[in-house]
Predict the 3D structure of the following.
Amino acid sequence: MKANIGSIDRGVRIVAGCAVLAAGYYFRSWWGLIGLLPILTAIVRFCPAYVPLGMSTCPRKDKQPQGAPGGPPR
């Protein structure tokens, strides 16, 4: 399971999940437990819905430091 959730996405998911949980508590509804889903995906840093869409909000690792093997010659 490769991480596909970046730091900004993680923060948004935690805030949104807490807001849904709070709304569920305020309105005394079990539907508020849906807020656990974005919090759980933020904790494990993996969203199964991103896989079929080919999405990832993690930063790219394309950049190699200069002088690294396989990098451009100096």
